[in-house]
Design goal:
This protein is an alpha/beta fold and 463 residues long. The protein folds into three domains: 9-101, no CATH class; 205-345; 361-463, no CATH class. Helices cover 71% and strands 9% of the residues.
Length: 463
């Protein structure tokens, strides 16, 4: 424990020096003396250790108390004098402070008055200077505006002049461009024809053309199905036609004039790969767009491969494809769905019956195919005949209207043998072939056309 930590600095060095050189008995006696005096008082210490008489101690205590009382009286007097002096000094300071504040207020008011006078005069002077400068700047702005107006007028004149020159130059450039285009047209056309011929001979371009044409025809025939190009995916044919249940019909497109046996073998291998993946596919179609016959299949062939219908179709060109493929696609989709339902409901022991049924359906398809094709050709011929008849009827009606207008212009009424009817109208109403004249009951004007007569009667009645 540091016993010198709180000592007066005056005694600090002496006590440390004494403690370092004093014997242990002196240190013990000093500690006991200090403890006794601190806890019991000086009298108890002397009575205990020095055996001082109690009377003497009382005298000492009495004298000590008297001195303490005397010192207390002196201290009270001194405190009173000090308090009085402090009060006097405080009052003096308060008076001085009040006087100083009054002086400060008067000086501040005087300073503010002087500042206000000087600021007002300065503001008046600065205002006059600013007004003079503003007037000068206004004159400068007016001068600049007049200069700008003159420059703008001159610039507009020059712009118009150069604009005319630019238009003339543009016309010359257009003429030169036409001349250059005419000069380069023959050479450019020859180059483009050569490039087009090269592109047409490219196998990749042929594949793209065939797949695009085939996709458009299939999408038009099956609008509720999704057509997906798979040409870059190996072993999955060129096109997948997918229904809403995710079932697939694979389509292989061949846009070339020669179909090899290897093309058919690759198509069959793609079907085997699809069957091994266990994906839901209904069947497959092999389409030859520019070659009507497929090796060992003919132009139309329906087979069963891995218990799925497979259709081979050969066409002589794009027109034949667009005319016949929609019919084949619709029939083939129905056939695939029927075969799928049969396979799903059949038990494991019905493989032979299913194969026999597939064979019977295939034979039926082969037998009825020529009839269906003949019916399709008759339907197309009928549609073409109907369109031709409709065009002829439109021409006859236009000619009849022109003749009526010509005769009415010359104040004549079309005679009976001039009135013309279409073949359909004459067949539907045999007696209508006779001429008939329609007379307006309001103005007695005559018409050979019933429609025009009705419109004229409405106009006369309304007027």
């Amino acid at each position: 424990m540091n016993i010198t930590a709180h000592l007066d600095p005056v005694y600090h060095a002496d006590i440390i020096e004494w403690a370092a050189s004093a014997p242990p008995e002196a240190l013990t006696h000093a500690f006991v003396m200090g403890y006794t005096v601190y806890t019991s008082g000086l009298a108890e210490y002397y009575r205990t250790y020095h055996r001082v008489d109690a009377t003497c101690l009382r005298d000492l205590e009495t004298e000590l108390k008297a001195r303490i009382a005397e010192n207390a009286g002196d201290a009270a007097a001194i405190e009173e004098r000090i308090s009085k002096r402090v009060r006097n000094e405080t009052q003096t300071l308060a008076d001085d402070c009040a006087y100083a504040q009054q002086q400060l207020a008067r000086q501040r008011a005087e300073f503010e008055r002087i500042v206000d006078e000087r600021v007002a005069s300065r503001l008046v002077a600065e205002k006059a200077a600013l007004e003079a400068e503003l007037s000068a700047q206004s004159r400068i702005v007016e001068s600049l505006q007049s200069q700008i107006q003159a420059v703008s007028t001159r610039a507009a004149t020059e712009v118009a002049f150069y604009h005319e020159k630019l238009e003339a130059a543009s016309r010359e450039v257009v003429v030169l461009g036409h001349k250059f285009a005419e000069a380069m047209h023959s050479e450019e056309m020859a180059r483009l024809r050569a490039e087009l011929q090269i592109l047409k001979g490219s196998n990749s371009v042929k594949c793209i053309i065939g797949e695009t044409l085939l996709s458009d025809v299939i999408q038009a025939a099956l609008p509720m199905w999704e057509v997906v190009h798979k040409g870059k995916t190996p072993h999955e044919c060129d096109i997948h036609v997918v229904n809403s249940q995710g079932e697939i019909i694979m389509v292989e497109s061949k846009y070339k004039k020669t179909i090899e046996r290897e093309d058919v073998d690759k198509f069959v291998a793609d079907i085997a790969h699809m069957d091994s993946t266990k994906r839901p596919y209904l069947g497959a179609i092999f389409v030859s767009i520019k070659k009507a016959t497929i090796p060992h299949k003919g132009s139309v062939c329906l087979e069963i491969v891995h218990r799925r219908p497979v259709l081979y179709l050969g066409f002589a060109g794009e027109d034949e494809l667009q005319q016949q493929l929609p019919m084949y696609i619709g029939v083939f989709v129905q056939y695939c769905q029927v075969m799928r339902n049969i396979v799903q409901v059949a038990d494991e022991n019905a493989d032979a019956d299913i194969d026999a049924l597939f064979e019977a359906v295939n034979e039926h398809f082969k037998a009825t195919h020529p009839i269906k094709m003949h019916v399709a050709r008759l339907q197309r011929q009928h549609q073409e005949s109907a369109r031709t008849i409709a065009d002829v009827e439109k021409s006859i009606l236009a000619l009849s209207s022109s003749m009526e207008a010509f005769l009415q212009k010359h104040d004549r009424i079309a005679p009976a043998h001039v009135q013309i009817q279409t073949r359909t109208q004459a067949q539907a109403h045999p007696t209508a072939a006779l001429s008939k004249t329609y007379v307006c009951e309001v103005c007695s004007e005559k018409f050979s056309n019933k429609r025009k007569h009705g419109m004229h009667v409405k106009e006369c009645t309304a007027s």
